[in-house]
Design brief:
With 115 residues, the chain is of the alpha+beta class. The protein folds into two domains: 1-19 and 66-97 and 106-115, no CATH class; 20-64, no CATH class. 30% of the residues lie in helices and 30% in strands. It has two helices and six strands; from the N terminus they run H-E-E-E-E-E-E-H. A two-stranded antiparallel ribbon has the order 1-6. The chain has a two-stranded antiparallel ribbon with strand order 2-3. Strand 2 (26-29) and strand 3 form a beta hairpin. The radius of gyration is 27 Å and the shape is rod-shaped. The mean pLDDT is 92.
Length: 115
């Protein structure tokens, strides 16, 4: 909290971030970037009167950033806000600051919520 106060910053609560489904691994060649695939099975298919074995391919994916990372960043922001509120209330109640007036202005409690 002290480092953020010295820098005049708030914790990063990942504004505007939404989890995206992205491939686990990609390959690049002269034709561009492609997702890697893995064989998940083999199926027999009738093609032009003959049975053929065809590999069933899938692209492994992951969520980035993970929803838990976003939730963790926002919990950290809420903890920071509560600590800031506690310090403000303590300074007002203690009357330790004679020449400085502590007002009620505070950042939004949950800025990621609309309305």
């Amino acid at each position: 909290m002290a480092e953020l106060a010295r820098a005049g910053m708030t914790p990063d609560w990942m504004p505007g971030v939404a989890p995206r489904c992205v491939p686990v691994e990609t390959k690049r060649n002269q034709h561009g970037e492609r997702s890697t695939t893995v064989v998940i099975g083999i199926e027999r298919v009738l093609h032009r009167g003959r049975w053929r074995n065809v590999e069933v391919l899938a692209c492994p994916v992951m969520w980035r950033p993970h929803p838990e990372q976003i939730a963790s960043a926002r919990r950290g922001y809420e903890d920071w806000w509560q600590a800031l509120d506690w310090v403000r209330d303590g300074l007002v109640a203690g009357g330790m600051l004679r020449e400085v007036e502590v007002n009620g202005a505070m950042p939004k409690v949950r800025p990621w919520r609309i309305g």
